[in-house]
Amino acid sequence: LFRSEHVFMSNDRFPTEEEQFEIYRGIVERMNGLPIVIRTFDIGADKQIANHNLPKEINPYLGCRAIRFLLREPSIFRAQLRAILRASLFGNVSLMFPMISSLSELLEAKALVKETRKELESEGLKLEPMRIGCMIEVPSAALISDLLAKECDFLSIGTNDLVQYALAVDRDNHMMSSLYSPTHPSVLRLIKIIVTEANRHGIPVTVCGEIASDPRFTPLLLGLGVHELSVAARYIPIVKNAIRNTSIVAASLLADKAMSLSTADEIDQLLNEEYKHNVPEDCIYNF
Ligand code: PEP
Ligand code: MG
Questions:
Q1: Per residue in 112-147, pLDDT tens?
Q2: How big is the CA angle at 137 (ends 264 and 11), to the nearest 5 degrees?
Q3: Which residues are near ligand 1 (CB < 6 Å)?
Q4: What is the pTM of this model?
């Protein structure tokens, strides 16, 4: 997962198509044929671009963020899509939209990709088809994941935001951090719905929030039917180790057990016990 906004957040203006193209191409080339998912700008709320006149909002997390911002700023969106499509000629690129909360947003974004693609083809570029996915990080999207799955090549669960929006707990508010519980039964139920629908429609589903990097969650996510985890490079060994130390049968039983529990604390405890049992030698995650 390439969070495209991070490269530009220290800029004092939005990057041009050309500037973006150069950066995306460089990254795609360095991947050397390995797949890369470029997420379109997730601007707004905690992620601002200096000097861009984003509206001042009372509840920015519920406001003009991510895909909502891009659909309201078509020239910025188009420039980014053109840059990504052009960079896709240099490797294995997929495109992903953040914070989709309705089917119409996804369809509008896809229509813009189609138009941009035509525009580039009329300029002489020979583009390959590109996989398009959407992030599921809002409960409304989770609950219509069957409809979104029909229109996507893959789904990716952004649990950092999904937890925030499902539990109505600001992910950056330290005073409320004890309420920010990825093991809340409502979160597990939402994940289960998304994974079931993705599997039913035969498309891959990834988890790309922080819980994907936490080895205590690994058997639970596998047991819920998640096929892919997107984690920062430094977590790959510890997550791989957690996978090697469970089996799909044990993971499914754990997921069933977790789904039958009623509180975040009980589920948390279950995951801790399972991890202690599976990987007793880990002194970082076992405490
Ligand atoms: C998420 O919300 O889980 C996610 C991967 O996106 P970000 O943390 O960048 O909002
Ligand atoms: Mg997010």
A1: 999 999 999 999 999 999 999 999 999 999 999 999
A2: 120
A3: 3, 42, 137, 158-161, 208-209
A4: 0.95
